[in-house]
Amino acid sequence: MSSYMPWNTEHAESLIAAEQRQAQAFYGDDGHGATAMLPILHALQGAFGYVPPDAVPLIADRLNISKAEVRGVISFYHDFRDAPPGRHVIKLCRAEACQANGSERTAAHLADAHGLHPGATVNSVTLQNVYCLGNCALGPAALVDDVLMAGVDVSAADALITRLQEQP
Ligand code: FES
Fold first, then answer.
1. Which helix (H) or strand (E) holds 45?
2. Angle at 100 (CA atoms; ends 102, 127), nearest 5 degrees
3. pLDDT tens-digit profile of 4-52?
4. Which end of the chain is more exposed for a tag (fewer CB within 10 A), N or C?
5. The whole model's pTM is what?
6. Among 91, 136, 149, 153, which is best to mutate for testing ligand 1, by the most ligand atoms less than 8 A from CB?
């Protein structure tokens, strides 16, 4: 379980500026625009748990790009959230090796039995898709609150949901 700070415009602006400065130091002239976007998005999500919609115009202004471009990047990468996560986050691997080991069955069961579709939060548990966690031989693999798990089949998923929902 992670704890994040509430949205704070000043803090967001300082994170954005710091990441842009780093990108400029590293990439020179190429670091002025969109090159800095991914580090900025990671920094914001690390601080707030998601990339708040209020951050989009701040990023666009700072990088001199459109808000649509910023939103496009946020929605393109599965790791970025545009809404606050629950107290617990399950990142279920949906890549090929885990599919061969049953991750699609697990995903369908999480949706049918628990209402947990990718991107949804139910009873303080958020589900996200990821694509390979480097645990391919032991799939279905998942990162649960940043702890790697193996063999997340239907029964393991049920036990996991019960455990997480009982945790504060
Ligand atoms: S494919 Fe799932 S961990 Fe590699």
1. helix 37-48
2. 45
3. 999 999 999 999 999 999 998 888 877 667 789 999 999 999 999 999 9
4. C
5. 0.83
6. 136
